[in-house]
Amino acid sequence: MQVATxxxxxxxxxxxxxxxxxxxxxxxxxxxxxxxxxxxAELRQVLxxxxxxxxxxxxxxxxxxxxxGGHFCAGADxxxxxxxxxxxxxxxxxxxxxxxxxxAAFGELCVAYARTPLAVVAVLEGTVxxxxxxxxxxxxxxxxxxxxxxxxxxxxxxxxxxxxxxxxVERLGYSQAKRLAVTGGRLDAAAAxxxxxxHAVVDTADxxxxxxxxxxxILACAPGALADTKALMAQxxxxxPQDLVQAAAAIFSRAAKGPEGLEGIAAFMQxxxxxxxxx
Length: 279
Hints:
alpha/beta, 11 helices
């Protein structure tokens, strides 16, 4: 059953529930889904709403991000940047920087999707540029169509990939991230796969089949264990393994003694699917 979730009068995105999966579509096809401030706000809101369902029988467990009209996202909306520049010129000197505020709003969006306890899957087609490139990097799983073209144009435009830089380094490693940044990087889907930016490349006609496989694998995992694993891995990026031994052991023990651990072991012993796997 599909349930629309447009109660907040979404304009720049569309959202729709299918079971435990929330499908979010960037919905500015005439602008190749360039990211406006309104789109940023709506993407933050739909994620907050999805996270708020945690622990309920009707909880969202997976978020799928994709774009309308054959493109994922062409990066920042230059109209918003131009407006911020005008405000910066006209505003009194009160410590406020409209351009920095616009940039930071997108950074907070990336952080929200990177840190969410929900699984995040990005389906990438056509233009994947700038901020769209950043969103691709924060997704847990990225599936690309053969049409996907990745571009990191900021330095060629005289600006800096400020908010997405940490996620580029996290996803690609320092060397490759730096190379792309200083060359105004261009990648086709095959090159993105070789670098590990995306995890699968398929024909456009096969995107839904590939997405269905990924969703089935994610939904076979216990939602609480998945959330705890994401949080632990986020810590593991920044700490030495020996510093995490005791904390990781406590997390494991809590999971093993909790309802998901008990159900998972029982299901394995009884040769049945755990209760969290959709029928």
